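Example S7 (C-alpha cells).
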C-alpha cells in the first residue's frame, strides 16, 4: 500500500505538470528568448568535431563594387567553369551601365538571380535577362529578428535561392546545418578555373549590415546563410524532427520517472538522500541531452528536448504545490497540538 502511494503521487504530479507546463511563467525563455535545442546541438558539434572546408561551394565577396564590376565578376566565374553562379545582389533601380550588365549576365550559362516572395522578379535589370533562374531570398524565421534555423526549398511559384543554385528538384525543407563546415571566401582577383570550376559560386556582400541575420552560431550575412542552406541540401543531412506525438510520449515518460524519483526522495530523511536524488536527476538530464545531441549530429534526427525541460520544471512546481497544499492542514494540526500540550 505504501509503495502504491508513491506511484499515485507521481501520476498525479505528472497529470498536473502537463497543463502547468504551458503557464507563461514557466516558458519565458522559449517564447521571448528565441530558444531551440537545435542551437545547443549545433554548438556541441562545432566543439567536438573538426571543421572541414566545403569543396562544392565558394563565396565571392563583392563588397563596395559597382553593378558593372559585379556583372563582370559573374561573367568571369561562369566562363571559368562554375557549376552555377548565384548572384545575391538586388538591382532595383536603373543606371547608365544597365546595357552592359544585362549583356554580361545574359552570357552566363547557369545564372541564379534573387527574388523576394513579396516582390517577385521586379528588377528592371533582371527582367531583361531571359536565360536565368530565379530563387526567393526570404530567410525562414518565426518572427522579425529571430534566429534563422530552418529553410524551405520551394513555394507554389519559386524555389529558394539556395535550392535553385543546387538545381534541387525536390521540395525539401528542414533545419539548416551550421556545424562543422566552412567555405572558401574568394575575391575578384582570385577567380580562375582552379578556384571555381565545377563549384556553386555565391556572389554577395559579406559586410552589408542590412543583410545580416542572427543564427545559432552568431550574426551572419545573408549570402553565407544561403551557402549553408545549399550545403545542407547537397549533403541531404537536414535533421528530421521526431513527430510531436513521440516527443510528447517521451516527455511524459521522463516526467513521470522524475516525479516517481521525487516521491521516493521526499519519503527518505537525510540531506545525503536529497543530495543523491538531485545528482541522479542531473545525470539523467545530462544523458538525455547527450542522447539528443548524438541523434542530431550523427543520425540527423532532431528531438526537441525543451518540452521535457519545461515539463520537468513544471513537475517540480506541481509536486510542491499539490502536496504542499495537502500537507498544510496536517502541519497546522501538529503545530496546534504542540501548543496545546504546552
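Recovered sequence:
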Amino acid at each position: 500500500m505504501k509503495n502504491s502511494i508513491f506511484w499515485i503521487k507521481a501520476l498525479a504530479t505528472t497529470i498536473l505538470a502537463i497543463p502547468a507546463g504551458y503557464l507563461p511563467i514557466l516558458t519565458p525563455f522559449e517564447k521571448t528568448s528565441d530558444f531551440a535545442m537545435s542551437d545547443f546541438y549545433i554548438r556541441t558539434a562545432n566543439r567536438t568535431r573538426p571543421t572541414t572546408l566545403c569543396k562544392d561551394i565558394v563565396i565571392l565577396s563583392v563588397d563596395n563594387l559597382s553593378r558593372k564590376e559585379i556583372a563582370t565578376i559573374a561573367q568571369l566565374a561562369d566562363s571559368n567553369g562554375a557549376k552555377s553562379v548565384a548572384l545575391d545582389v538586388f538591382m532595383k533601380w536603373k543606371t547608365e551601365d544597365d546595357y552592359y550588365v544585362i549583356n554580361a549576365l545574359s552570357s552566363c550559362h547557369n545564372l541564379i538571380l534573387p527574388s523576394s516572395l513579396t516582390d517577385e522578379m521586379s528588377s528592371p535589370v533582371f527582367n531583361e535577362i531571359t536565360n536565368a533562374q530565379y530563387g526567393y531570398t526570404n530567410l525562414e524565421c518565426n518572427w522579425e529578428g529571430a534566429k534563422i534555423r530552418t529553410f524551405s526549398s520551394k513555394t507554389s511559384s519559386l524555389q529558394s535561392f539556395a535550392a535553385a543554385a543546387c538545381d534541387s528538384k525536390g521540395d525539401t525543407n528542414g533545419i539548416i546545418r551550421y556545424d562543422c563546415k566552412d567555405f572558401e571566401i574568394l575575391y575578384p582577383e582570385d577567380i580562375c578555373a582552379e578556384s571555381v570550376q565545377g563549384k556553386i559560386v555565391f556572389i554577395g556582400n559579406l559586410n552589408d549590415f542590412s543583410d545580416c541575420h542572427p543564427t545559432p552560431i552568431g550574426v551572419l550575412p545573408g549570402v553565407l546563410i544561403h551557402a549553408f542552406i545549399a550545403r545542407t541540401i547537397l549533403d541531404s543531412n537536414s535533421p528530421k524532427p521526431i513527430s510531436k506525438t513521440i516527443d510528447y510520449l517521451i516527455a511524459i515518460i521522463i516526467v513521470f520517472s522524475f516525479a516517481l524519483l521525487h516521491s521516493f526522495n521526499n519519503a527518505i530523511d537525510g540531506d545525503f538522500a536529497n543530495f543523491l536524488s538531485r545528482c541522479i536527476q542531473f545525470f539523467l538530464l545530462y544523458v538525455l541531452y547527450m542522447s539528443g545531441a548524438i541523434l542530431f549530429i550523427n543520425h540527423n534526427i532532431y528531438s526537441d528536448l525543451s518540452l521535457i525541460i519545461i515539463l520537468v520544471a513544471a513537475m517540480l512546481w506541481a509536486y510542491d504545490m499539490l502536496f504542499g497544499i495537502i500537507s498544510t492542514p496536517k502541519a497546522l494540526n501538529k503545530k496546534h497540538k504542540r501548543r496545546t500540550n504546552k
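Notes on this example. The two ends are 35 Å apart (CA to CA).
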